[in-house]
Amino acid sequence: MTDLSNGMDLMYMHDDSENMEDSFTLQLTDGRHQLQRRVVVMVLPLNDEEPHVVRNNGLEVEPGESRLISSVTLLSQDEDTPPSEVLYMLESVPTQGLLQLKEGEDWETLTAVRNCSQEMVDMNLLRYVHTGLHGAHTQDFFVFYLLDGKNQSPLQHFHISVKDLEKGNIAMFVKPLNVSRGDRVVLTTDVLLATDGTEKPEELLFIITHPPAHGHMEYIKHPGLAISTFSQMDVAANLVAYVHDNRATTPRESFQFVVSNGRTSRNGSFEMLVEMVDRILPSLSSNKGLSAPQGSSMILGSNFTQRDIQELEVTYKHDGGPSQIDRFSFTACDTTRRGFLLGGRLHTEPVFFTIQIKPLDKTYPEVVKLIPLWKAELLGDGRHGIFVSSRELKAQDRDSRDDELIVSIVRQPYFGYLENMTTGGFVPHRFTQTELNKRTIAYIINPHRESLTDSLEFTVSDPLGNTGPPHILKFSWSTVELSQPEYSVSEEHRTLSLDIIRKGNLAESSYITVEVKEVSATAGTDFLISPSSLIQFDPGVSKRSWQTEIIQDHLEEAVEIFEVLLVSPEGSVVGSINKAQIQIRDSGRGQTWLNQDPKAPVLVGKEIGSDTYPQHGSIHLEKLPLGTESIIWGRGDSLSRPAADRPRKKLKVLDNPKSITPSSVFHNGTDTVYTYHGIMQMQVEDDTTPSRKGRTANIRVVSRGVQQQGPAVFTKSKSDPQTKISIPQKTAAEGPADNSVPKPCVPELIGLLHFNQTTNQLFHCDGVSWKPWAPNDQMMSGQKCPQGWTFHSGHCYSLSTEHKVTWSAANKACRERYKSTLASVISKLDMDWLWDFGGRKPFWIGLNDREGRGRWEWAGGEPLSYTSWRKTPPRSKMKGNKKCILVGRRAKWQIRDCKTGRGHRFVCSKRT
Prior knowledge:
This protein folds into seven domains: 1-164, Sandwich (Immunoglobulin-like); 171-275, Sandwich (Immunoglobulin-like), CATH 2.60.40; 290-358, no CATH class; 366-471, no CATH class; 479-585, CalX-beta domain (Immunoglobulin-like, Sandwich); 615-760, no CATH class; 782-911, Mannose-Binding Protein A, Chain A, CATH 3.10.100. Helix content is 6%, strand content 40%. A hairpin with a 5-residue loop joins strand 32 (377-378) and strand 33 (384-388). The N and C termini lie far apart (116 Å). The strands form 20 sheets. Strands 63, 64, 65, 66, 67, 68, 69 and 70 form an eight-stranded mixed sheet that branches. The model is unreliable at 591-651, 653-658 and 683-739 (pLDDT under 50). The longest helix is centred in the last third of the chain and has 11 residues, at 807-817. It is mainly beta. It has eight helices and 70 strands.
């Protein structure tokens, strides 16, 4: 401290480094105590270092190429200046290319007065673009010096080497094209040039991959026709032009292209700089006026733009006064406000827009034509439909066009539905008179319903909401079918006549074509085809006959078969019996079935009076008595089975010196059936009585006290030589009907009820035999199902078998046509019932994974509680994501594509 008091100066000397901060520690002591303090020295920066170039490697480019100038090729440093303040000052720019700096999204060309910093070079914002002609110069350079704000470096040269172009390689030279808004500019080699060193510009082809967004390229000789390809020769010949769209609002435009010489190719982009100057006047192209209902508002406006009109944001509102004419004046202009063009002439004065006021229409449309429809037509997909056109349904309104007249469906048809034949969609609510004029609406006939009539209720309204009273549109058509599906004829009959029956609407004419198909019989050898194949039904005619001639060849041969089919209906629908099988037998063999059911043979023979009781030597053969608990009716083609405790009876044929030959012989695979016309001696035997040989008896066949007559039909089994007899039922054609004996119970009569007046009981047909009928809960629930649907476990089911479709089409049909969904399977009991209900053949159900996420769900929305996969876990080889379920063999579930593949039947269901 004494030294300091005596005038000693203590100084800090900096070492001239670039460290801007330093420190030292002072210690003060009195010999016993010490005190230390740290002194911090802040060095003021001084820009006394010159910037210098660390790296200047130059650049090598291809002809026409753009290359970045980065810190890899050009790097400068200054010890006391950051890179952002070290500037490259340009003394000269390249002569064979452009030096460009990226500012935002664009590249700006640098001139001799411009500069850039080392930081910009580090950020890859500086590039060199070669624009010189090929072969002219192979070297280029620019001159610069460094400046840090105070100090300056010596001049430096940055050299750029242009590679020689190898033959086949493509070099491109592209410059921006200046174009005015809405203008047309011809492309030249100054702005677009490609070369490959072969001097064949016609082989250099430009292909536009992304066309300009606000214009197009075209040949000058074909204005208005946009092109996507052109050659370098076309550019050199000034044949290619760019046309700008006057409606564009962006100042830049570009298109992408690929140029190729057949061996190599290069991608490129061509840029157009648009001068946003409006040089084209607006044109008034439409001034047709407006018709407005009295007191209403219409789209229009004041001081509005063309876009406002296009977006319907301008309205004209009428004040409700009595005037019928209104108008306003207007002028059209753009930003230049120089007027507008009308008919090619310049207008600066306003023009008028006229509005015509229409008095309010309070009358509803009138239905001027409403005729029942009958003409059924065969559609392309095999369905039948009746087209609804303006010939049958016509509505008119003096103030409305046909496309404004709306036909609203108040009640849908009971059995069929309406379909738009143009779109293929279901018509749920309404259609227009225009659609009727174009004949696009059709009533689709439901093939699963036996009804031959249907109707719908509708109203007609206009745009103002005036609605007329409801009307009924009726449909009444006819069906044509054969009288029976099978015929058996002997050669000796020579002629076979088939009855063709028409049902339903008989007031109009209809036609059907008869087609003959050979099976084992040959046309021209076994039968002759009638030359008239077209059958015409005149109004009121319900039955026509078609005849064919049977050829008697006197040869012993097997039964020969051919088929007769009904095809190509006109004005009618083919019924269920659309095919008949004809069996031709040799002369004298068997019985002829004509106009009757071959399964119920005709009984002929001598009638035994009902008052004649069995005498000695005669046998009274009666059906076995019915049980005490239930009454079972036979099917009509065999004897009823006796009770378990009753002895079995049989008829044994005795020797007879008189031989009776069978009138027909029929083989059904396991039995041989002989049909006799005559009387034979027989013996009755049972299991409890000894044999009684030598007794003969005439047979009288009765059924519950009512006798029958006819031939006995004997059956000889291949496994049992014993001949048995079965008694056929009496047909309705042989005598008065007995209401105590119903028709044979066949599958077609399932659900039919029969009242037996003898026993005062009601029976129902289950498809096999007649059973006593009594109401139960299931029957009461079944009453809720529509006609043609089957009740099971709280649901109504319908099986579609006529058309085989994909899952998606089946789902749509259930939803739109039947107002239901594809069937859901909740338990194994339901699956077993559905498998039997579907005839044990494949059908669609509602399970699907249409979203492809492995999440299976029912079309009806029920939870998935039961599965019956063919393979567990389910696997699918399909590449698609949309998977649906088909019930296949053994009621196992198989995965199929929802929209493609083979069609199948389907089951629809709905809750009761």
